[in-house]
Design a protein that fits this description.
Helix 1 packs parallel to helix 3, helix 1 crosses helix 4 and helix 4 packs antiparallel against helix 5. Helix content is about 45%, strand content about 10%.
Amino acid sequence: MGYEIVRLDGNGEPKRVHSVDDQNYFRLNVDVMGRARTLALWGAGVLLNTDMLNYTMVSAALRHKQPSLEEVYAVHELADEAMTEWIKPFVDNDKATASYKQCQDFADNLQKALAEIRDSPVKPDYETKILWAFVDFLQGSTLGVWVE
């Protein structure tokens, strides 16, 4: 289970995707999308350092066992006060359109958080390469994206 994200065409429709390697397509599993949202909200200053510490401890504990899908969803659930306009289309995979501005805001804030992590002497116990690729994908989504 995960998120399939497809760039929109000039008519606001998802572009045709020919393969999983298509430049108009990006896929993230539930855990990685949850991490991307949480980091972006931290990068935006919506979540505090204490929120990130708590999130990191809980999510790290889950990575060391075989969590149920419900446990994964619970870790990444966002409080109402963290529900910014730019994060809303990316909260679930129930078919939503994210505008260019929402994509750029998500990308900019995720990039801030990833730069903070990159420049920190403390490194996470997860790979950030896919998150950097997601930033690039969102920045290149000039007409917005379809999230499913």
